[in-house]
Amino acid sequence: MNNKLYGKLIFELSHPGRRAYSLPKDEFGSHELPSAMRRAEDAALPECDEMTVVRHYTNLSENNFGVDNGFYPLGSCTMKYNPPINEEMAALSAFNNIHPLQPLSTVQGALQVEYDLQRALSALTGMADFTLNPCAGAHGELTGLMIIRSYHETRGDSRRNKVIIPDSAHGTNPASAAVCGCEVLEVKSTADGLVDFDDLKQIIADHPDDIAAMMMTNPNTLGLFERDIPAITKLVHDAGGLMYYDGANLNPMLGVARPADMGFDVMHLNLHKTFSTPHGGGGPGSGPVGVREGLEPFLPKPHVVKNGDKFDIEQPERTDSYTVENNHVGPFLGNFLVIVRALSYILSLGKENIKMVGPLSVLNANYIKESLKDDYELPIHGLCKHEFVFNGLKDKSTGVTTMDVAKRLLDYGYHAPTIYFPLLFHEAMMIEPTENESKETLDGFIEVMHNIAKEARENPEIVKGAPHTTPISRVDDVEAAKHPVLTFRQLAAE
Amino acid sequence: MYKYFPHTPEDIAGMLAKVGAESLEDLYAELPREVLYKGDYDLPSAMSEVEVRRFFGRLGRKNRQLVCFAGAGIYDHYAPSAIPQLIERSEFLTSYTPYQAEISQGTLHYIFEYQSMMAELTGMDISNASMYDGATATAEAMLLAFNNSRKADTVLYSSSLDPKTVDVMRTYAHFHGVRLEEFNSMTTSAEDLKVRVDKGDIAGVIVQQPDYYGIIEDFTGYADACHSKKALFVVNSIAADLALLKTPGEWGADLAVGDVQSLGVPMSFGGPTAGYMCSTEKLMRKLPGRIVGKTHDGNGQRVFVLTLQAREQHIRRQKATSNICSNESLMALYVTIYMSLMGKEGLKEAATISYDGAHYLCDKFIATGKARLVYDKPFFNEFLVDIDGRDEFYDRAVEKGFVPGVKVGRSGLLIAVTEQRTKDEADELAALL
Question: Which residues on A lie below 8 Å from B378 (Cβ)?
Answer without folding.
Answer: 33-34, 37
